[in-house]
C-alpha cells in the first residue's frame, strides 16, 4: 500500500520563480528565504517520495472567472505550464500519475465531494513554484494536482477543505502501490494584493497558524472564509490549501521537521513547513 511520508507547505509568490530564473538565491533580498529550503531538501533527499499530491489554487491560467470549480483534480499523464504574464519562464511539463488521480477521484466522488476531473490541465505558479523550491534540480516526483478555489467567491470553507484533504489521504493510503507519497500545500501566508488593504500582513495570526499545524491542525477550521480573509487578507486565504494538504497527510498529530517565516517576499508573508508522521 502507498504510504504518506510527510506534508510540506510553502508560499508560491511568482517573484520567487523570477529569482530562481535569474539565479538571485544568494542576493541579500533572497538569501534568507532560499536558505530556508536547505532543511526541507535534506529531508526530501532522505525520504525520497515517489509521488506528490499538490493542493493549490489556480489564478486564472487553467480556470478563469467564467468557469470556476470549487475543487478540481488533475487526471493527466502530464501537466503543461504556460505564460501567466508574470515575466517568469514557462517550465517544461510535469509528469502526472493518472492511476493515483483516478483512485483519488473515485474516492472523493464516493464520499460526496462533487469535484471536476481534468484530463487536461495547465498548472500555474502555485503548482510550479513549490515544486521548483523543493526540487530545484527539476527532479520533482510525478504529481497529482488538486485545485481549490481561493479566488472567486464563494470559496469552500476551511472545514470543507480539511474534509476533502482527509478523503484524499484515505484514497492515497488505499492505493495498492508500494510507493511513498508526500503532500504539498501551496500559498499564503497572510497577504492581500489589491484594494485599501493591499500589503496587509498579520504576523501574529500566521505564527499561531504555523504553531497549530503539527498538533492542533483543525484549529483554523473554526473560522469562516470571511473571517480568514479578514485575518489573513484576500489572498492569505490560500492557507486553506495548507489545511487540505495537512489533512491528507494525517488526521492526528505530526512532527515538525522545520518551519520558516519571512516578511516580506513581494507582498506576502512567506512561510515554509515540513511535517512528518509523529
Ligand atoms: C503574490 C502572491 C501570491 O500568492 C500570488 O499568487 C501572486 C503574487 C505576491 O505577493 O506578489
Ligand atoms: Fe497566490
UniProtKB/TrEMBL annotation:
UniProt-listed Pfam families: LigB
Signal peptide positions on this chain: none
Residue ranges constituting the Extradiol ring-cleavage dioxygenase class III enzyme subunit B domain according to the UniProt record: 7-267
GO MF entry, a single one: oxidoreductase activity, acting on single donors with incorporation of molecular oxygen, incorporation of two atoms of oxygen
Keywords annotated in UniProt: Dioxygenase, Oxidoreductase
InterPro entries the record matches: Xdiol_dOase_suB
UniProt name for this protein: Protocatechuate 4,5-dioxygenase beta subunit
Organism: Roseiarcus fermentans
